[in-house]
Amino acid sequence: MQLEEQMKCWNLAAVKVLDIRRIVMEAGEQLSSYTLPANGFIYTIRGSAVLQLDGQTYKAERFHMLHGAKGSSLDIQTHEDFEYILLYYRAFLAFPSYRQKWLLAQPEVAPFSLQYGFTPNSPLGLLRYLDELEDAWAQSESLDLLHTKSLFYQFIHEMMVQLTEQEIKTELADPVKQTLRYIQKHYREQVTLDSLAEQLNYSSRHLSMQFKRKTGYSPIDYLIQTRIAKARTLLVRSDATLSEIAAEVGYLDVYYFSRIFKKHVGISPIQYQRKMREEGRAEDRPLQISESSIGRRWKSGYIDYENHYQYIDGGSTPMKRRKTSSNMIMIALLSITMLLSACSSGTISPTAGEGTGASSNNSSTAMSSDTGSQTNKDNETRTVSTIKGDVVVPANPKRVVVLYLQGDVVALGVKPIATSDVYDGAAYKSELEGVNALGTWFEPNPEAVIDLDPDLIIVPSEETYMLLKDIAPTVYIPYEKLTTEERLHDIASIFGKEQEAKMLITNLNNKVEESKKTLADAGILDKTISIVEGGLKGMVIVESKQFGRGSQAVYEYLEMKAPDVVQSKIDVVSDEAGSNISMEVLPDYIGDYVFRSVYEGADNLTDNPIWSSIPAIKEGRLIEIDFDFFYYSDIYSINKQLDFVVEKLLAAPRAQ
User: Fold this and answer.
1) What is the rounded distance in angstroms from the CA atom of residue 363 to the CA atom of residue 350?
2) If you write DSSP's letter for every residue of 484-498 in order, what string do you get?
């Protein structure tokens, strides 16, 4: 960008001073990999130091000026006492027409995100404005803050004058390098494409395209590979539990971590650890070195209740995300070359598969309170009324993308061309053979969706709606606010399959009644059921009909009861809930039959004396349920779960 263009930008800019401070560093002191939280100026007052900004080295002596963009990585190495002023600001083009003109002309350039360093010919003029800025900023009155903004413009004017005199060259911050550095430093935290773009002051689309063009991978793919590379090291070289390793590399949900590790490495974390340690032992055995030099045998971790719902794409519980903290010690930067070479195939290629269509419907069809649909036969479209307003969708969609709600879609006879990830044990997994995977439900890859050229998108959240709504007609289904029947009816109305939905619900209700009669005849329906998940440290006791893990099938549809101490909570809880119970008091919460949700790596409780002494366990009325299979709450999954529950209860020893 030429200086003349910069001046035009400043002339049309709205600005806000964010902070100004004077910092003194002692000789030998260092600042490493500090990420600038906003665009900023660094002005040396006294002393000298070597500054690196995004890898570019500057020798900063008295009165050296350096400008860096938001998201840039700053390193300072001092050789003597070093004092500087740090000024943070935010600026944007104030007039929409000019902003649009700028974006069309040079979309890859953020107008104020330039990097340059120089020693001004008239340093005291700049220092005078900075001193006055500092004094005004220290005051809290509105008039002083207005004065601060006025002084900032004067400072910028003086800066432009001196840059012009010296014909200083400026350069754009490299978004790819910034992204690589940011991910390598912050991979433990909750990082999304949007948060990356916000942090580095780029649009999500521009950042993703630039990154993929230069590396061949999306930023999120690179983040995953960074996390997995660190996890591999920890699995082999430490005795940390699986849950500790998952948290260390940015996953609060150990189950999701295990799945994504297996997807990219080919085997589960536990299998990888055993394999690598066995190889290590084999290398050492010529000298018969003791196994103790490798480390003690792996002990599976326990999925903590508070963290159990992070990054999971399905289930009957509301879909939540929480941020992780980043107060652990920073690891050394990972080698980009090594990481990229280690990448498994994570790209999504479009297929020729087509979704089954829905026939046109002339009549106006009523939906639940929030949604409705009406078919326009002439235009072969259907108007769907949603909480986001009317959406015109194809009457006979062929290329359907659905996030999270795929079980209901499959039950209606529609095969999508792409969905969010589905657990291997899901009841409908085989129905989605050959369908493209778009990643977790809450963070699909927009570029991959665009490549698939969908004619209809169905999403379960406000965030995913905003992310994909401009690609194709997008229908937002607020699933957590609807019953199974309401949700199915709303989805059916998108495709004109209301009669199919009605039949599915009727069949489900008939199955429920038949199942209840079968269990009653066997003397089981009036027995108590406990649903638990956990391990040696404690158990989560399910206290809701909406928790997943079979709670909907057992407590809502079959209307079976839990022990009184648990049932009293189920009766008053309307959403998902559970309590973390220590093993010492666990027997008080266990009913005549126990369903325990298990997953790969779950603790083996066979030798635990408390667990083994519980009558239901001791007498063989423990039924283990697969986490994958019982996580989902769509009508397809509920049907299969009911079959499983009834079959296992009938096969178990009778409770007296």
Assistant:
1) 35
2) HHHHHHHHHHHHT-H
Greatest CA separation found in the chain? Answer: 96
Look over the chain and give the mean of its residue pLDDT values, rounded to a whole number.
78
358 near 419, Cβ under 8 Å? no
- Residue 310, beta-bridge partner list: 320
> ∠305-309-315 over CA atoms, to 5°?
120
pLDDT band at 282 (very low <50, low <70, confident <90, very high): low
Minimum mean pLDDT range among 42-56, 232-246, 294-308, 372-386: 294-308
Q: What digits encode the pLDDT tens for the residues 397-456?
A: 999 999 999 999 999 999 999 998 888 889 999 999 999 888 877 778 787 888 888 999
Distance CA 500, CA 506 (A): 10
Measured in degrees and rounded to the nearest 5, phi and psi for residue 511 equal -65, -40
To 10 degrees, the CA torsion angle through 494, 496, 500, 505?
Answer: 40
Q: Phi and psi for 480 in degrees, rounded to 5?
A: -70, -10
Tell me the one-letter amino acid at 611. W
Tell me if residue 372 falls in helix, strand or coil.
Answer: strand
C-alpha distance from residue 272 to each of 17, 200, 576 (Å)? 51, 35, 34
- Look up residue 264 and give its two tokens: 């990219």
Helix spans in 238-327 (H): 242-248, 254-265, 269-284
pTM over 0.85: no
Residues 6+ apart with CB under 8 A from 508: 557, 635, 638, 639
CA distance 204 to 197: 5
pLDDT score for 379? 57
DSSP alpha helix (H) spans, 266-391: 269-284, 336-342
What number of other Cβ atoms are within 10 A of residue 618's Cβ? 11
Other CB atoms within 10 Å distance of the CB of residue 155: 22
No. of helices (H) and no. of strands (E), the chain: 23, 24
Residue 583 near residue 538, CB atoms below 8 Å: yes
- The pLDDT tens digits of the residues spanning 57-78 come to 888 888 899 988 888 889 999 9
How is residue 415 written in tokens? 């095969």
- Note the pLDDT of residue 449: 87
Residues 6+ apart with CB under 8 A from 495: 357, 358, 397, 412, 414
Residue found under tokens 């010690």: 329
Residue matched to tokens 């007609």? 473
C-alpha 394: how far from chain center: 30
> Strand order of the sheet with strand 49-53?
30-35, 73-78, 49-53, 56-60
DSSP 319: P
Answer for the pair 462, 456: CB distance below 8 angstroms, yes or no: no
Sign of the dihedral defined by the CA atoms of residues 394, 399, 403, 409, in that order: positive
Q: How far apart are CA 254 and CA 244, in angstroms?
A: 8
d(CA 552, CA 170) in angstroms, rounded, equals 62
- Residues contacting 137, CB < 8 A, separation 6+: 17, 19, 20, 144, 145, 148
